[in-house]
Design a protein that fits this description.
The chain is of the alpha+beta class. Helices cover 45% and strands 12% of the residues. It has 35 helices and 25 strands. A hairpin with a 2-residue loop joins strand 18 and strand 19. It is extended.
Length: 819
C-alpha cells in the first residue's frame, strides 16, 4: 500500500499524471489537441511523432535544450546523477569551466528537467530518466552524424562493422587482454576510455602531435579525414582505438574518449542562466515619454499623409501582387523617407485595415472606409490603433527588397511577407525592454543574445528564402520600428507603451493624450508667401490648407508655401477667390500679406480663361492672341494642336493630358463639360469596398483556453477509461482484444442495453458516428425507445442519445471495474 510501480512507457507516465499536469502538457504543446486524442495511449503516440517533438524542442530555452542533449548522449535510462555529471563535469578543471558554473547548473537543472517532463520529452523517475525515442534520434549522435554537443558515436556503435581481427589488434596495442568475443572486446575498450586513471596513463604515452589532433576533434566535429598512409600521430591514435574508422577515409573520436578529454562534460559552455539585457544609457523618463509622444504624432501624421496621397486611387497592383519598385520609390519621395521606411508605413496602414485593394478590373490600392472612421479619432486613439495592429501583424516589412526561395524580389504589400514568428518576437523584445528600469535604453546585442538563449533552435532556423537567424533580424527590425512608431523614445520604452502591453490600448491612449499638443485653429501667414503652423492643425483647417498650399518642411512646426499651382488646385476644387480670402483672414493670427492676396487674385483672374473639352479634346478662348501664343510655343508640339476657329483649337490628346500639358507651359486652363460649364475637380475620395484588416498567419495551432483544456482532459480521461476498463467475459459477449470494438448481434445489444437501463449499471460499447469514426465509450443507459438509447456518457461527461444501429456491440463491465 502506498507504493507505486515505476512507469514502463510514456503512456503509463502520462496516465499517472493529474488533470492539471495533463492540461499543462496540452497548453505547452497545443498541436496535440488537433484532434483531441481518444485516450492516453493516443496522446502518448502523438507526443512522440517527429513533427510534434521537433516543434516542442524548438520552444525550449538554451539550458533545457542542453539538458535534453545531455540525456541523448547518456545511456537509456540514465539516473539524475549521470545527467548532472554530463552538465557539470567530473570535477577536473580544464581552465574553461568557471567555478560558479557548477552551482548554477545544480540550481537550474531541476527546473529544466521539470520543463522537459511537463512537455513529455522526458519521463521516468529520477533514477531512470528517459528521453523520448524520437527526441533521442534527433539529438543523439550516429555513426554518420555528430550530435549538437559535438560528440560522436560510442565505441560499440563505431566498431559495429569492424572485423574481430582489427579489434584484437587495437586491444593488443592498448595493452588490454585479448578476447575472441567481440562484445567483450568492445566492453574492454569502452572500460579503458571511461577509466580515468588508465586513460590518463594511455594519453601520457601519446606523442604531442597526437594530443594536438585530439584537441581539434574533442569539441566537435569529431570526424576527420585520413590518407591511405596516415602520419605517425594519426596512426598512433588509430592503433590505440582513439580514432575508429567510419569509412576508408574517415575516422571518428569515440564518445567515451571525448568525454574523458572534456572532463566529463557534454557541453563546452553550459548556459544555465539567461544572459542579462544590459542598458547602454539611462535617460530621464519624462524626456523618453516626450520623445516617444512626438514620434507617435509624426507616425499618425505620416500614415494620414500617405493615405491622403492615395485618396483618389493609389498605385496599380502588380500582377503577382504588391507595389512595384517604382511606386515604392515615388511613395518614399512623397513622404521624404528612405524606401525601407516607406515600406514600413505602407505595410502598417495595410495591417491596420486602412488600406486595401479596390477590387476593380484595373486593380489599385486605395483607402478603406475604415480610414474615414480612423481619421475622425483623436490623435492618441489613432496611434493606439496603429500600435495594436503592428504588435499583432505577421507581415514583416523588413523583408521588402529581399528575395524569396525562388529568387524573386519581395515587394511591399506582396504575398510573401508573412512571418508567423513576428508577433511573438515583437512582444518578447518589448517585454525585455519593460523589465528594465524606466528610461533605460538597452544594448541591442544583449537583447539578441537573450532571444537566442530563450529559443536557440528557432533562432538558428529560417524560412525558405531567408538567411539564418530570422528571429534576430525581426528583433532588430522591432527596435527600429518601435522608434519610428513612438513605442520607444530615444531607445527606451515609453510609459504609454508599458500601459499598452499591460492593460490595453485605452489606457495607453489616455496616458499619451496629455503629451500630444491640442490641434490648432490658426496659422501664421508671412510675407514670403508661406504659412507656419506652430503645431498640429484641426482637421478641416489642415484639409483646406493642404489644397491651397504645398508643404515645404515638416517638424515641430509645418511650413506651407503658396504657389500659383497650389492656388489653382484650390480653385479647381470649387473654391472662389473670395472664399480663399475669407478663409485666410479667418484662420491667420497675422494680417494676410499683400503678395498673397495679389497671387490669389492673379491666378483667379486667369483661371478658366482657357477651356478644355473633348474633341478628342479642344481648347477655346475668347482671346485669339492667347491661342496664337500657344500655337507658336514649341512646347505645344507634343499636343498636336490645330486651329478650328479663331477662338478654338483641337488636340490629338485626351482632355486630361491637354490640361496637364498647358499647365506645364504656364497657363491656367479649366476643364469644361459638354454643356460648357466649368468642371470642378475636387480632391477624390475613392474608397475600397468594406475590407477587414489582414488576418495574421498563426504560428502553429492557437493556444487553447481553460475551457477547452478542461474539456479535452475530461475526454481523454474518459476515453482512456473506456479503452482500459475491464469487461466481463461471457459466452454471449466475449471480452474483446484491448483497443478493439466490442461485437454483438442487434438482438444481444438491445437486450443488454435494456437490462442495464433497468438495473442502472454501466456498459462498454463500440460506436460508429455518421462520419464513420469509431470510438469506445462507457455509458449508463437511462431510457431505450424508438431505436435510440439515452444514456449518461462517461466519455463525454454528459447525457447523450445514440442510435442503436450505430452501436457495434456491448459488454458489461467487470464487478471490480464498477465498484
Amino acid at each position: 500500500m502506498g507504493m507505486t510501480t515505476p512507469p514502463r512507457t510514456l503512456a503509463e507516465a502520462l496516465r499517472a499524471r493529474d488533470d492539471e499536469s495533463l492540461a499543462g502538457l496540452l497548453r505547452a504543446r497545443p498541436d496535440l489537441l488537433n484532434p483531441v486524442p481518444g485516450d492516453i495511449t493516443q496522446l502518448a503516440t502523438r507526443a512522440g511523432t517527429r513533427a510534434s517533438v521537433v516543434r516542442a524542442l524548438e520552444h525550449l530555452d538554451k539550458f533545457a535544450l542542453q539538458t535534453a542533449e545531455a540525456l541523448a548522449v547518456a545511456a537509456d535510462p540514465a539516473p539524475y546523477e549521470t545527467l548532472l555529471g554530463l552538465l557539470t563535469g567530473d570535477g577536473r578543471d580544464d581552465g574553461e569551466h568557471r567555478d560558479d558554473a557548477g552551482a548554477a547548473i545544480v540550481d537550474a537543472l531541476p527546473g529544466a528537467l521539470a520543463t522537459l517532463r511537463e512537455q513529455a520529452l522526458v519521463w521516468g523517475e529520477d533514477d531512470r530518466l528517459r528521453l523520448v525515442r524520437t527526441a533521442r534520434e534527433i539529438l543523439a549522435p550516429s555513426p554518420q552524424h555528430a550530435s549538437p554537443t559535438g560528440l560522436g558515436p560510442t565505441v560499440a556503435e563505431a566498431t559495429s562493422g569492424m572485423s574481430p581481427g582489427r579489434l584484437q589488434e587495437i586491444l593488443a596495442t592498448a595493452g588490454l587482454p585479448a578476447t575472441h568475443d567481440p562484445v567483450s572486446a568492445v566492453s574492454s575498450l569502452s572500460a579503458l576510455f571511461t577509466d580515468r586513471a588508465r586513460m590518463g596513463e594511455l594519453l601520457d604515452t601519446a606523442p604531442a602531435e597526437a594530443l594536438s589532433v585530439l584537441d581539434r576533434l574533442v569539441w566537435g566535429p569529431p570526424y576527420g579525414e585520413v590518407t591511405p598512409n596516415p602520419t605517425p600521430p594519426v596512426k598512433w591514435l588509430r592503433d590505440h582505438g582513439l580514432l575508429l574508422p567510419v569509412s576508408t577515409r574517415t575516422v571518428v573520436l569515440p564518445r567515451e574518449a571525448a568525454l574523458h578529454l572534456r572532463a566529463g562534460r557534454a557541453h563546452r559552455v553550459p548556459e544555465p542562466r539567461p544572459p542579462a539585457v544590459e542598458a547602454v544609457a539611462n535617460r530621464d523618463p519624462q524626456a523618453v515619454d516626450s520623445a516617444a509622444a512626438g514620434q507617435a504624432l509624426l507616425a499618425v501624421n505620416t500614415v494620414e499623409e500617405l493615405l491622403k496621397s492615395w485618396n483618389g486611387g493609389g498605385p496599380a497592383i502588380l500582377r503577382a501582387g504588391g507595389l512595384s519598385v517604382r511606386e515604392l520609390k515615388k511613395t518614399a519621395a512623397a513622404l521624404e523617407v528612405p524606401e525601407q521606411v516607406a515600406a514600413f508605413w505602407v505595410e502598417l496602414a495595410y495591417a491596420a485595415g486602412l488600406l486595401a485593394s479596390d477590387g476593380e478590373a484595373d486593380e489599385r490600392y486605395a483607402p478603406t472606409p475604415a480610414y474615414d472612421d480612423w481619421a475622425e479619432l483623436p490623435a492618441q486613439e489613432r496611434w493606439a490603433a496603429l500600435a495594436t495592429a503592428w504588435l499583432a501583424a505577421t507581415r514583416t516589412s523588413g523583408l521588402v527588397g529581399g528575395q524569396d526561395a525562388k529568387g524573386r524580389a519581395l515587394s511591399a504589400l506582396g504575398p510573401e511577407l508573412d512571418r508567423s514568428a513576428a508577433p511573438e518576437v515583437r512582444h518578447r523584445v518589448l517585454a525585455l525592454l519593460a523589465a528594465l528600469e524606466p528610461g533605460a535604453a538597452p544594448d541591442p546585442e544583449t537583447v539578441l543574445a537573450r532571444l537566442r538563449w530563450e529559443r536557440p533552435l528557432r533562432g538558428a532556423s529560417a524560412s525558405a528564402g531567408d538567411t539564418i537567424d530570422l528571429r534576430s533580424r525581426i528583433a532588430l527590425w522591432t527596435l527600429n520600428e518601435s522608434e519610428l512608431l513612438g513605442i520607444t523614445g530615444r531607445g527606451a520604452l515609453a510609459t504609454h507603451t508599458r500601459a499598452l502591453l499591460d492593460t490595453g490600448p485605452a489606457e495607453a491612449a489616455a496616458l499619451l493624450a496629455p503629451l500630444i499638443p491640442e490641434p490648432l485653429d490658426h496659422v501664421l501667414l508671412q510675407a514670403d508667401l508661406t504659412a507656419v503652423a506652430p503645431g498640429p492643425l484641426e482637421r478641416p483647417l489642415a484639409d483646406v490648407l493642404s489644397a491651397l498650399a504645398d508643404i515645404e518642411s515638416k517638424g515641430g512646426a509645418t511650413v506651407y508655401r503658396f504657389t500659383p499651382g497650389s492656388v489653382r488646385r484650390a480653385l479647381d476644387a470649387g473654391q472662389s477667390a473670395a472664399d480663399l480670402h475669407a478663409f485666410l483672414a479667418a484662420h491667420s493670427r497675422t494680417p494676410v500679406p499683400q503678395p498673397l492676396s495679389y497671387l490669389i487674385d492673379d491666378v483667379a483672374r486667369r483661371h478658366g480663361h482657357l477651356r478644355i473639352g473633348a474633341a478628342s479634346s479642344y481648347v477655346r478662348c475668347d482671346d485669339e492672341a492667347v491661342l496664337n501664343e500657344i500655337l507658336a510655343d514649341k512646347r505645344s508640339a507634343t499636343l498636336r494642336l490645330r486651329r478650328l476657329a479663331p477662338t478654338a483649337l483641337a488636340a490629338q490628346v485626351d482632355p486630361a493630358s491637354l490640361l496637364e500639358g498647358l499647365r506645364e507651359m504656364g497657363y491656367a486652363p479649366a476643364a469644361e463639360s459638354a454643356e460648357g460649364d466649368v468642371l470642378i475637380t475636387r480632391a477624390g475620395a475613392r474608397r475600397t469596398p468594406p475590407r477587414t484588416a489582414p488576418v495574421p498567419v498563426p504560428e502553429g495551432p492557437p493556444l487553447p483556453d481553460a475551457t477547452l483544456l478542461g474539456a479535452a482532459v475530461r475526454a481523454i480521461r474518459a476515453g482512456d477509461t473506456a479503452a482500459t476498463v475491464v469487461r466481463k467475459d461471457t459466452p454471449e459477449a466475449p471480452a474483446a482484444t484491448p483497443g478493439a470494438l466490442p461485437r454483438t448481434t442487434s438482438a444481444e445489444t438491445l437486450a443488454t442495453v435494456q437490462a442495464a437501463a433497468m438495473t442502472g449499471s454501466a456498459l462498454w460499447i463500440g460506436y460508429v458516428n455518421a462520419d464513420g469514426a469509431a470510438s469506445q465509450r462507457v455509458i449508463a443507459p437511462v431510457r431505450v425507445e424508438g431505436g435510440f438509447v439515452t444514456a449518461y456518457d462517461h466519455t463525454a461527461d454528459e447525457v447523450r442519445t445514440y442510435p442503436l444501429h450505430r452501436i457495434t456491440g456491448v459488454a458489461e463491465l467487470a464487478d471490480d471495474a464498477t465498484a
